[in-house]
Amino acid sequence: MKYVDEYRQSEYIQKIATDISKITTKTWRLMEVCGGQTHAIVRNRIDQLLPDKLELVHGPGCPVCVTPLEMVDRAIAIAAMPGVIFCSFGDMLRVPGTDSNLLEIKATGADIRIIYSPLQAVQIAEQNPTKEVIFFAVGFETTATANAMAAALAKKKELNNFSMLVSQFLVTPAIEAICSAPESLVQGFLAAGHVCSVTGYECYLPLTQKFRIPIVVTGFEPLDILEGILHCVTQLEQGTYHVANQYVRAVKKAGNWHAQTLLKRVFSVSNQYWRGIGQIPQSGLVFNDEYADLDAGTKFALTAVSTPEQGLCISGDIMLGQKKPYDCPHFGKKCRPEQPLGAPMVSSEGACSAYYRYSQQEKFSEHPMSVTDKD
Fold first, then answer.
1. Based on the number of CB atoms within 10 Å of its own CB, is 39 exposed (0-12), middle (13-18) or buried (19 or more)?
2. Does the keyword RNA-binding apply (predicted)?
């Protein structure tokens, strides 16, 4: 396939992997921020091509994984109401809330629909004027742009029966929070190319100088990721630190002005709580005053509650790069895709899901927390 196959050619992959091995003289720990990159790394065994001194850890770039438990409980409460059509991306349906999940509520008769674009939810609202249609707006800057478009369209069409339950996150403050943590072991970052296609990468420039750390904007194919790693390791070995753009075919320094304008038109920046991690200042998006009537939380008068986590899931440690899925005593035992303890095991961008789905069976069997073990 044009523009895909050329980034999967084995001879080039092996060459870059060899180049990385040749220049790596010290022990380095890199974090790929995006969950999609995590899945690409594990699926394509990229981590196994790297020298032993080089370790990849997995960041908080899975919006499903970091959506607060309270927000999941709110979604369940709204979806269970009569006269409601609740729309969501499929990943959210099996994310565990306090006592249930959306899929279980759907099984009891709730009208919960899996959609692939927020614009579908707008269309459903048009087609069902006597129903309240709610879209679960979860995502980072890339998805938030589509969510903003849906909100603007609903406003233009004067759809009073349409609203959104918003759980949106910003990547740059998360990277800064990771760098600021005293226990952080991350020495370089692979930034998510699709997010940077919206934001650009100028926002990362202050971080490289403040924390003296390289950040490389990277794509999602094997060659993209390995080239990003090569860029990052080269800087580390040379003692330099700046922003590099590996994903030049999709990302410009200033990003997408039209998308940025739309986001500012619909949303305002706010503090945001990240599930498993805690509150990160100025790391979320909420409706601004002009679009406040589209806020489902306000519309359905849901009071804010602090829902404590169960404590069994170590997703926060995993998403901060401090542990791997194998370090969880419940991985593959109490926590499996069909009965997850946390979102990283069910999300298509979750690190635990990637390890469970793509890791070699012999690796599982060698590990103390084998998925072949009995509970």
1. buried
2. no
Q: In CATH, what number is assigned to the domain containing residue 25?
A: 3.40.50.11740
For the purposes of burial, counting CB atoms within 10 Å of the CB of 168, is it exposed (0-12), middle (13-18) or buried (19 or more)?
buried
5 pLDDT more than 90: no
**Taking a C-beta distance cutoff of 8 angstroms, is the pair 324, 354 a contact?**
no
Polymer length of the chain = 375
- The β-bridge partners of 190 are 32, 216
Do residues 148 and 265 lie in contact, with contact meaning Cβ atoms separated by under 8 Å? yes
How far does the chain reach from its first CA to its final CA, in angstroms? 44
Q: Which two tokens stand for residue 51?
A: 């020298």
Q: What is the pLDDT of residues 203-262, one digit of tens each?
A: 999 999 999 999 999 999 999 999 999 999 999 999 999 999 999 999 999 999 999 999
Interval 328-337: pLDDT, tens:
999 999 999 8
Cα torsion through 277, 271, 247, 34, rounded to 10: 20
- Give the DSSP letter string of 36-95: HHHHHHHHTTGGGGS-TTEEEEEEEE-HHHHS-HHHHHHHHHHHTSTTEEEEE-GGGGGS
Q: Using one digit for the tens of pLDDT, what is the confidence trace for 170-187?
A: 999 999 999 999 888 899
Our count of domains for the chain comes to 1
3-state secondary structure of 282: strand
Residue range(s) defining the domain that contains residue 164: 1-375
